[in-house]
Structures are given as C-alpha cells and as structure tokens.
Amino acid sequence: MKLAMFDAKSYDIESFEKHSDGDFQIKFFETKLNEDTVKLAKGFDGVCIFVNDTANAEVIDALYETGVKFIALRCSGYNNVDVEHAYKKIHVFHVPAYSPYAVAEHTMAMLLTSVRRIHKAYNRTKDFNFSLNGLKGFDLHSKTMGVVGTGKIGKVFIDICNGFGMKVIAYDKYPAADSSINYVEQLDSLLRQSDIISFHCPLNEDSYHLINKESIEKLKKGVIILNTSRGAIIDSEALLEGIKDRKIGAACLDVYEEESDIFFNDYSGHIVNDDTLARLITMPNVLVTSHQAYLTEEALNNIAEITINNIKAFEDGKGCENELCYKCGRIENCKNQRDEKCF
Ligand code: NAI
User: How far is the CA of 37 from the centre of ligand 1 (A)?
Assistant: First the structure.
C-alpha cells in the first residue's frame, strides 16, 4: 500500500510513523494537494489529506486518471472534498471523531484568554510591567452562551460551559433527541439572546456566512464570537466591520475563510497578502490561532490510528465504516441507511 501524504508536518510524520506498520509505504509531501501538485500522487494507491488541501472536481479527476483509489482525510470536516464528484471514481474516508475534547477545550482557552486578557498580561509581566490598567475582564458565570451545532464537539463545549455556571442555549439543524440541551427553534433567537456565540457546526450550504452583515445587526452589543469550526461560517469582512462599529466586543478565531494559503506556514518576516486578516490581527480584541484547536497528543494519535484503520479496512475489502457516501443523502450515515456502499 503506497500512500502520499500531503501538507505533512513534523507532528503528522511522527504520529503516522508510530502507528503504521510494514504494510505501509508513506511518502510525506510538505506541499498541499491542489490542481498544481496533484501530479505528485502518480504511482500511489491513495492520498492522505488535511483541512487545507483541495480535492475539488479537477483534482479528483486527475487523481482518478492517475490510478489513485482513495482519499483518506485525516480530519473530520470534508468541505474541501467534492464528495459528490468522487462518487464512482474515488473512495473518500474521514476521521469522524478523534478528540472532541481537544477542540472544545481550545475554544474555552481562547475565550478565557480573551475575556481575562491573559495574552496581554503574559507579555506585560515578561517585560516586568505589573500594571493592571486595561486588563479588566468579566465573569463568565451567568452569561448566556449560544452554541451553534451540538454534535460531538458542541456537546463537550456545552458541558464545559455548564461547569462555569453559564446559561447555555443551542441551535442545531438536527437537534439531538431526548437530550437535556436547551434548544432554541430559530438561529435568530440565539443570535439575539447570546452574550457569547460559539460555532461547532460543519461548513455547508446552510452554514456558509451565518455571521454576515444582516445577522450582525441582530447580535447583542458587545457579543463575543468564537469560531473553532470552519472559517467560511463567518463573513470576515462583515466581522471586521462589526468590530470597527463596536457592535462585536471580541472575536476568537481558530479558523479563517481564506486560511488555506496562510495557516500552518511561518510568514514572520514576510508581508501577508490578505488585508482582512492583517486588519483583524491588529485589533486588540481579536485573537487568532492557526487551526490549532485539534492539536493535542491524544488527537494526533487517534487521527493516525483511525486513518490507518480506515485504509486497512478498505484494502481488506470489508468496507470502511468511515467512508463518506454521497449516494445516501446524509453523507456520513451511509452504513445506517443502506446495505451496501456507494460503489
Ligand atoms: P458533528 O458532526 O459531531 O456535529 C456537527 C453538528 O452540527 C451536528 O449536530 C449537525 O446536526 C449540526 N449542523 C449541521 N449543519 C448545521 C447548520 N447549518 N446549522 C446548525 N447546526 C448544523 O461534528 P463535530 O465533530 O462536533 O465537529 C464540528 C465541526 O468542528 C467540524 O465540522 C469541523 O468543521 C470543526 N472542527 C474543527 C477543528 C479544529 O481544529 N479547529 C477540529 C475538528 C473539527
């Protein structure tokens, strides 16, 4: 089994080398998969990709022509893969869950950092500046947290917020049955009531630019926006305007809609050609991490193990339970609805 891994960083290489055995020959490419780099996949059985690789129709056709049989996503979200176009050409697997705790805990870490000005205090005390001016925060206790998306990560995040004594309300397109989650029926109602809003839904047609010029008008003045889900859930230009208008009190962003050419790379000493991101980063009330929420020891081990098991299950001809199945409508629940896989 020959696997080409794209966008491979030292921490990926370490975890995949630890979990793969002699059955696997993995070639690690630092570059991302896209229309220009797809030629590198020639001669491999499959490609292993991450959140900022591109597997659009053009890339899928090129992979198919070169004989690649599968795309193994080493992440949960699959908005960067044209799963519909892959149907009957290339099998697509993902890692549905590897550590919801990693992402939920990072979300709370960002919120606390922002609200209690930890990032400012850290820099000050490093410089022996022990002044407290400008560091006033507020209690999270009793504040209303609005959670959009109550799947694996959203649920863990709700538990964390409950631990802080927050009032948690939630919106989900498919609310969980028989749960103790306090759902609102309309997203608007969550937008109007929440002091803090956290996104934990996938990027899809319904969630694209959920935060935009119109929806920002509905928000409480001073609201904090947390996004550890996918960048394009927020219209970044509109967010920037909302911050400049003092409508949005703070934003904590682990993802950014134009992150694919920027995140995971060291651009210190360079000029970044993205004025919106540059402006956001200059704001004192905006905190950016570069798609780091998943990055824990536990998550990396689980990602490597599950990805390798996905590939082995496919190779053994047993069918992979984490295959993304376009044919079934609800892409991830193929096995539950049909006796057989797509193709
Ligand atoms: P999940 O599939 O368990 O839960 C997603 C929830 O969102 C489901 O309950 C679903 O019904 C709901 N949903 C779908 N479309 C919606 C919409 N338009 N509006 C409201 N709710 C909607 O997914 P999980 O594991 O909780 O992950 C959530 C997202 O977090 C992923 O899709 C991914 O984009 C992001 N993620 C980010 C990571 C990071 O490092 N920053 C790492 C892992 C995931």
Answer: 29
